Amino acid sequence: MTSIAIVGPGAIGGTLAAWLSQDKRFEIALCARTPLVDLVVETPQGTLRATPTVWTDPAQAKLVDWVLIATKTYSADTTRPWLERLVGPQTRVAIIQNGVEQVRLFEHMVPAERLVPVMINLPAARSAPGRIVQSRDGIIAVPSGANGEDFAALFDHTNIAAKAHADFVSQLWVKLCGNCASIVPALTLRATGPVWSADMEAIVRALAEECAAVGRAEGAEIAQSVVESTVAAMQGMKEGSVGGSIHADRLAGNPMEVDARNGVIVRLGEKHGIPTPANRMLVTLLAASASPWVQATEAR
Ligand SMILES: NC(=O)C1=CN([C@@H]2O[C@H](COP(=O)(O)OP(=O)(O)OC[C@H]3O[C@@H](n4cnc5c(N)ncnc54)[C@H](OP(=O)(O)O)[C@@H]3O)[C@@H](O)[C@H]2O)C=CC1
Ligand SMILES: CC(C)(CO)C(=O)C(=O)O
């Protein structure tokens, strides 16, 4: 039996827990901040129900084979009490978060050789504790090597396509090129499609171009088509739709991952001498309009 603890059973953590709970090889525990009883996840393949063990206090937790961290990036340090109880000498820790800094955010808490950064493309939203809608099939990318391949194999009996990639850095940055543009609906609080204009296109294009330039400087391969698909996605965003989890968080009055999704482009741009005026401006405006809920830059 492989033991798996999922820290942060929100939209992503709850969805992954529901899928993995269908596999009898696994013993699943949820490490929750807000208590929950069970999981009911609507997926494109139907409804998944699961009743994994729920721990709400790190004192209840024990050593496990795998820890899956699925909190927001800004909660990274709050997972330390869980990690202290869950991680033994053999435990591997997968960081399932947006952005490109999964390792940086956790390497002061877990030895880097046992960290697995994960890129996940799986739209999910939580309406109540344990109640989640997964709206499209999921894709997971991890770095090649034993840890990445073992992590991907956990999803063998699920409908999530998990794969190890030699060029994992490109997987992260390509996703960020799409995600960084969602700062626009998070700021304007409405879909971009109905208010599309040449000026709006210039802003979205600049956000994605800056991300691509910084990503390339970080070693990622990013085709121009990635920028074009970001522009097309924002142009096609329909009235009333939510532009990803950062927009959903702003609507719900939650903190936003603005540093992980846009601030990082500014920070790493500075490191490489690449100007990022569009990302810098929108990060500043979002921080100003959403304050005190938004952190323009994370402490670490
Ligand atoms: N939602 C989506 O469609 C996608 C999200 N992502 C990324 O996945 C990551 C997770 O996002 P998402 O699932 O949407 O976020 P949610 O806010 O839905 O879930 C985060 C969960 O973490 C819990 N949490 C926070 N701190 C702790 C802690 N110290 N101990 C235990 N639990 C904790 C929260 O608790 P509580 O229940 O109290 O809120 C919540 O259940 C983010 O980086 C996001 O960008 C990536 C792809 C798609
Ligand atoms: C765009 C999406 C839903 C893709 O998984 C995402 O990453 C997010 O909103 O955080």
Automatic annotation (TrEMBL):
Protein's UniProt keywords contain Membrane: no
Organism superkingdom: Bacteria
Gene Ontology terms describing biological process: pantothenate biosynthetic process
EC number: 1.1.1.169
A Pfam family the protein falls into: ApbA
Alphabetically ordered keywords of this record: NADP, Oxidoreductase, Pantothenate biosynthesis
GO CC list: cytoplasm
Reaction(s) the record says it catalyses: (R)-pantoate + NADP(+) = 2-dehydropantoate + NADPH + H(+)
Keyword NADP attributed: yes
Gene Ontology molecular-function annotations: 2-dehydropantoate 2-reductase activity
Domain (Ketopantoate reductase C-terminal): residue spans on this chain: 168-288
EC class (word): oxidoreductase
Domain Ketopantoate reductase N-terminal: 4-144
SUPFAM superfamilies on file: 6-phosphogluconate dehydrogenase C-terminal domain-like (SSF48179), NAD(P)-binding Rossmann-fold domains (SSF51735)
Involved pathway(s): Cofactor biosynthesis; (R)-pantothenate biosynthesis; (R)-pantoate from 3-methyl-2-oxobutanoate: step 2/2
Function text: Catalyzes the NADPH-dependent reduction of ketopantoate into pantoic acid.
Family per record: Belongs to the ketopantoate reductase family.
UniProt-recorded name of the protein: 2-dehydropantoate 2-reductase
